[in-house]
Amino acid sequence: MGALILDPLAALGRAVLGACRVAGDVGLFALEAISHLLRPPFYWRLFWRAFVEVAWFSLPVVALTAIFTGMVLALQSYTGFARFNAQSAVASVVVISLTRELGPVLASLMVAGRIGAAFAAEIGTMRVTDQIDALTTLSTNPMKYLVAPRLLAATIALPLLVLVADILGVMGGWLIGTFKLGFVSAAYLKSTFDYLEADDVISGLVKAAVFGFIVALMGTWCGYNSRGGAQGVGGATTTAVVASSILILALDYVLTEIFFAQ
Fold first, then answer.
1. How far is CA 26 from CA 94, 111, 123, 222, 240, in A?
2. Which pairs count as long-range contacts for 189-193, CB under 8 Å and 24+ apart, including other chains?
3. Ramachandran angles phi, psi of 71, nearest 5°
4. Distance of alpha carbon 222 from alpha carbon 116, whole angstroms
5. Is 206 helix (H, G, I), strand (E, B) or coil?
6. 3-state SS, residue 182
7. CB-based contact 112:241 (threshold 8 Å)
8. 128-161 per-position pLDDT tens digit
9. CA–CA–CA angle 32, 38, 41 (5° rounding)
10. Which of 23, 128, 157, 188 has its CA 20 to 30 A from that of 118?
11. d(CA 213, CA 157)
């Protein structure tokens, strides 16, 4: 009888301790990477390569996601508000939802699926093929060379992507509103700008910077600590995407509570 009670508690305790250990490892990894950002030398070539990879090559998927999200949001909002004769609120709902929540979250999830996986796969392959050990042998710090430039690049690039996503998402809502739902273009745009506030945009961009850091951190950490050949690299890639997505959604709540709690 005692075993039936104690065994689940022991398993729960091991899981909690394991989670705490992983969280500590990730935190120390992040602090070490940030410390390398503050100390020379800095590999600008690697930074720009990672920045282009995150910002430019992720732009198509983020743009398409934002446009269709804005279109669907406008259509669904109109359908719901029509029950209460509040169709005029569609424009305000679209712009506030996109700038505060949907723009940063959806763009970050798209980038996590693309860039987080790429970082984990690239660094993980270098780990299992001993290329990271070779960097150390050549007196090159792997954290400074592989991790720090990617963290900075993703942290800067994602707010830019979210800014584009906000614009395109509002444009998608405007397209549906004017060409399908019968709104007057000038009235729709006026309602959009009347309800848009700087705090909405700024909070979304701050979220994007945090999410970009998380995506790069989890991608590099999972790749840096991967083991076991090709199977280990595949597991690290999957873990990076899943962990990034969960942390993005969890931190979205925390940041929303900080910015908008009354």
1. 36, 20, 16, 9, 12
2. 189/91, 191/88, 191/91, 191/92, 192/91, 192/92, 192/94, 192/95
3. -65, -45
4. 9
5. helix
6. coil
7. yes
8. 888 888 888 888 888 888 888 999 999 999 999 9
9. 100
10. 23
11. 10
Q: Does the structure show a pLDDT above 70 at 28?
A: yes
Residue 119, domain member (yes or no): yes
- What local confidence, expressed as pLDDT, does residue 107 receive? 92
Cα–Cα distance list, 251 to 207, 209, 245, 247 (Å): 8, 12, 10, 6
Q: Residue 16: CA atoms inside 13 Å, Cβ hemisphere, count?
A: 6
**Residues 42, 53: Cα–Cα separation, whole Å:** 18
Is-contact 71 172, C-beta < 8 A?
A: yes
Q: CB within 8 A of 61, min separation 6: which ones? A: 110, 114
* Cβ neighbours around 234 below 10 Å, total: 15
Instruction: Examine the pLDDT at 209 and tell me if it is beyond 60.
Output: yes
Cβ atoms of 233 and 128 closer than 8 Å: yes
SS3 109: helix
Flag whether 73 is in a domain: yes
Nearest 5°: phi and psi at 228? 90, 30
The burial class, CB within 10 Å (0-12 / 13-18 / 19+), for 153 is: buried
Read off the pLDDT of residues 117-129 as tens digits, 9 standing for 90 and up: 899 989 988 888 8
Name the phi and psi angles at 92, rounded to 5: -70, -40
Q: Which domain holds residue 84?
A: 41-260
Is 200 a residue whose pLDDT tops 90?
Answer: no
* Dihedral angle, C-alpha 54, 59, 63, 66, nearest 10 °: 10
Phi, psi of 106 (to 5 degrees): -65, -40
